[in-house]
Design goal:
It contains seven helices and seven strands. The protein is of the alpha+beta class. A hairpin with a 5-residue loop joins strand 1 and strand 2.
Length: about 250
C-alpha cells in the first residue's frame, strides 16, 4: 500500500489501487479461513514501544510495568496480553504518586474524616466584606482579613479548597502568572515593580509559614524557568525581557 520515507512522507498507491489491493487481500484471506490458526505470543511477553517525542515516552513510563530504556523508548516484561491490557488501562496502581486525569492527588489522599464542614449561609448579616469562592485565593484572603480584625463572610458553592484549587498542581511560582509588560499596562510601572520584587519572598514566607488551624501545607523550594517554542512566543518573551530590563534601570525588579 505505501512505503514510508520519514515521519511526514511516504510513497503510496492511488486510492483506487489501494481499494483493489485491500479487496483482493481480504478475499484471499477469507478463502484460507479454515486452515488459519490464531497467532499466540509466547509468554512472558517483552514489550518495547518507541516514541517520536520524549515527552510521550515520559508519560508512558508511568504505566505500571514499563520503564524508560532511553530518551524515546520504554520497555517491560509481562506474563500475558491480559496483563498488558490491564496495565495500559490503569487497572493496577502500585505507584501511589501516579496522577490520573480528572483526579486530584491532594483531595483523594486527604482523610475524609478530617474534612471540615460549615453551616449553609442563611438570612441577612451586617459585615465588612464578602468573599466569593473558597479556593486558595479566597481562603487566603479571608484568613488575612480575619487576622486584621475584619468581619467577613466567605461564600463557597461546594466545599472549601476542593474545586479548581484542589485540582491544581499546587505550584507557588517565583514570579506572577502574567508577563511584566502586561502587568505594567494594568497597574503601571511602579505597581509592576512592587509585584515582581515582593512575589518571591512572599511565596517563600507562605511555604515556610505555620499552617493556620485546620489547614495543612506540603511544600518544598524549587526554582522555575520559562521558555518559548513558536515564533510568536519567542517574540512575546523577548518583549517582556526588554520591558523588565528597562524597568530595572530605574529600580531593581
Amino acid at each position: 500500500m505505501k512505503e514510508p520515507y520519514g515521519y511526514h512522507s511516504a510513497n503510496t498507491v492511488t486510492p483506487a489501487r489501494g481499494q483493489a489491493l485491500i479487496r483482493d487481500g481480504a478475499k484471499r484471506a477469507m478463502a484460507k479461513l479454515g486452515s488459519l490458526q490464531p497467532y499466540r505470543l509466547a509468554a512472558p511477553i517483552a514489550l518495547e514501544v518507541g516514541f517520536k517525542l520524549t515527552i510521550d515516552a515520559e508519560r508512558a513510563a508511568f504505566v505500571p510495568g514499563l520503564a524508560r530504556s532511553d530518551a524515546h523508548n520504554v520497555k517491560g516484561t509481562f506474563k500475558d496480553m491480559t496483563e498488558i491490557t490491564k496495565a495500559a488501562a490503569g487497572a493496577h496502581e502500585p505507584r501511589r504518586s501516579m496522577t490520573k486525569y480528572g483526579k486530584s492527588p491532594w483531595v483523594d489522599q486527604f482523610p475524609k474524616s478530617r474534612l471540615p464542614s460549615f453551616p449553609r449561609y442563611r438570612g441577612a448579616s451586617t459585615i465588612d466584606a464578602v468573599i466569593i469562592g473558597g479556593g486558595l485565593t479566597g481562603a487566603a484572603t479571608a484568613y488575612a482579613f480575619a487576622a486584621a480584625g475584619v468581619k467577613l463572610v466567605l461564600l463557597e458553592a461546594g466545599q472549601i479548597g476542593r474545586g479548581s484549587s484542589g485540582s491544581s498542581s499546587g505550584w507557588l511560582a517565583d514570579t506572577p502568572g502574567v508577563s511584566f509588560a502586561d502587568l505594567e499596562r494594568v497597574v503601571g510601572l511602579r505597581g509592576a515593580r512592587q509585584a515582581w520584587r515582593g512575589w518571591r519572598p512572599r511565596g517563600a514566607r507562605l511555604r515556610g509559614a505555620p499552617a493556620p488551624a485546620r489547614c495543612e501545607v506540603f511544600a518544598r523550594d524549587a526554582s522555575g524557568s520559562g521558555g518559548a517554542v513558536t515564533p510568536d512566543q519567542v517574540a512575546r518573551l523577548s518583549r517582556d525581557q526588554r520591558a523588565r530590563r528597562a524597568a530595572a534601570r530605574g529600580g531593581r525588579c
